[in-house]
């Protein structure tokens, strides 16, 4: 069977090839899958998509016409795929329902520690042999309050680390996680979490109910010296409102591994291009803001789990098996 994978990063390619192990004819492309590139999948029964691909009705129609029968996304999120259109077109859709939660939780803490202790600024200075400490003062996390929005596997992993620092834990989710309760977490409403937390980390899926959960009102409720971290989905945060909050001199630090308009920017070299996204450009000017390129998941352990699950999705499709990764089952035989 012919399989084409889009948005394949160089470090990911050998793991992807190993996972498929010659069972199918695999073609790895560094292209983004969208309406301009969809025709390159012609003749491939399986398309392995990435989170930055655009799988709207138009793209899915091109895939279906070209012979694609399965789209399997190498990510947990799937808000970039029009599932209703896939059903109408007879396309099966799968994803990776879970992988190492530690990869994202640990990276969220890396951002939190870096912005709190001014690590990027310190490294920039010392490279110029400037060893002054002015402006580098941070705070102990011990004894302070961590607010965690979304307490699933990743949120729980973040909470365990926070407990190790000796922090008070506040959580907000549609259901309470017994593991988090055992750590001493108190579940509260979002408004109270925003008001009382010194460190706020987002670990929610992007859904209509969570879109811009951190908006202007939420930002106004936060402490002036709060630290805000987002390693989940860019759409959880209103970036325009965040810029205005930072312009007011509020928030001690912000760590962003995701951005609402990251498609076509993150994972690419745009260093020689004219920056047309004024919001992203403005965010990058604040010294207390650290932006990374959607790399929280990017550990050998997590990527290996992702590509193995992707290969398993293909085998399940061929065998007619269903499982937790399946979002749209294949059409019933007539």
What is the spatial order of strands in the main beta sheet? 8-7-6-9-10-11-12
Q: Identify the CATH class of the largest domain.
A: Alpha Beta
What characteristic shape results from the CA principal axes?
globular
Radius of gyration of CA atoms, rounded to a whole number: 21 Å
Largest sheet descriptor:
7 strands, parallel
Number of strands: 13
EC number: 1.1.1.28
Protein name: 2-hydroxyacid dehydrogenase
Family: Belongs to the D-isomer specific 2-hydroxyacid dehydrogenase family.
InterPro entries: D-isomer_2_OHA_DH_cat_dom, D-isomer_DH_CS, D-isomer_DH_NAD-bd, D-LDH-like, NAD(P)-bd_dom_sf
Which helices and strands appear, and what pairs or packs with what?
Layout: E1 2-5, H1 13-20, E2 25-28, E3 46-49, H2 57-65, E4 70-73, H3 83-89, E5 92-94, H4 101-116, H5 119-127, E6 145-149, H6 153-164, E7 168-172, H7 178-182, E8 186-187, H8 190-196, E9 199-202, H9 216-221, E10 227-230, H10 239-247, E11 253-256, H11 278-283, E12 289-291, H12 300-319, E13 326-328
Helix pairs in contact: 1-12, 4-6
Quick synopsis:
Helices cover 34% and strands 15% of the residues. The chain is an alpha/beta fold and 334 residues long.
Please, could you describe this protein's structure?
The structure is a single chain. With 334 residues, the chain is an alpha/beta fold. The chain folds into two domains: 2-99 and 299-328, 3-Layer(aba) Sandwich (Rossmann fold); 101-291, Rossmann fold (3-Layer(aba) Sandwich), CATH 3.40.50. Helix content is 34%, strand content 15%. It is built from twelve helices and 13 strands. A seven-stranded parallel sheet has the order 8-7-6-9-10-11-12, with helices on both faces. Strands 2-1-3-4-5-13 form a six-stranded mixed sheet. Helix 1 packs parallel to helix 12 (300-319) and helix 4 packs across helix 6 (153-164). It starts with a strand and ends in a 6-residue tail after the last strand. The mean pLDDT is 95. Residues 9-326 form the D-isomer specific 2-hydroxyacid dehydrogenase catalytic domain. Residues 110-296 form the D-isomer specific 2-hydroxyacid dehydrogenase NAD-binding domain. Its EC number is 1.1.1.28. One of its GO terms (molecular function) is D-lactate dehydrogenase (NAD+) activity.
């Amino acid at each position: 069977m012919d399989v084409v994978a889009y948005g394949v990063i160089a470090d990911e390619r050998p793991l992807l090839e190993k996972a498929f192990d010659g069972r199918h004819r695999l073609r790895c492309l560094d292209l983004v899958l969208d309406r301009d590139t969809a025709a390159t999948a012609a003749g491939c029964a399986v398309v392995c998509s990435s989170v930055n691909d655009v799988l709207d009705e138009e793209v899915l129609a091109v895939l279906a016409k070209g012979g694609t029968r399965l789209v399997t996304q190498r990510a947990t999120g799937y808000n970039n795929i029009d599932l209703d259109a896939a059903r109408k077109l007879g396309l099966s859709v799968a994803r990776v329902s879970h992988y190492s939660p530690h990869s994202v939780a640990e990276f969220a803490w890396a951002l939190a520690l870096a912005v709190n202790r001014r690590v990027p600024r310190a490294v920039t200075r010392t490279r110029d042999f400037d060893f002054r400490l002015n402006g580098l003062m941070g705070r102990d996390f011990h004894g302070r309050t961590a607010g965690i929005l979304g307490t699933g596997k990743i949120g729980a992993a973040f909470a365990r680390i926070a407990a190790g620092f000796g922090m008070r834990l506040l959580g907000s989710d549609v259901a309470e996680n017994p593991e988090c309760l055992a750590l001493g977490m108190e579940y509260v409403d979002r408004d109270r979490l925003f008001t009382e937390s010194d460190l706020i980390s987002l670990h929610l899926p992007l859904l209509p109910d969570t879109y811009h959960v951190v908006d202007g009102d939420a930002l106004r409720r936060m402490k002036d010296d709060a630290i805000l971290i987002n390693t989940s989905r860019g759409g959880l945060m209103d970036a325009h409102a965040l810029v205005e909050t930072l312009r007011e001199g509020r928030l001690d630090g912000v760590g962003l591994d995701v951005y609402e308009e990251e498609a076509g920017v993150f994972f690419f070299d745009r260093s020689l291009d004219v920056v047309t996204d004024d919001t992203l450009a403005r965010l990058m000017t604040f010294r207390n803001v650290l932006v990374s390129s959607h790399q929280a998941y990017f550990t050998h352990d997590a990527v290996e789990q992702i590509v193995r699950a992707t290969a398993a999705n293909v085998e399940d499709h061929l065998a007619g098996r269903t499982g937790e990764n399946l979002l749209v089952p294949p059409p019933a035989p007539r």
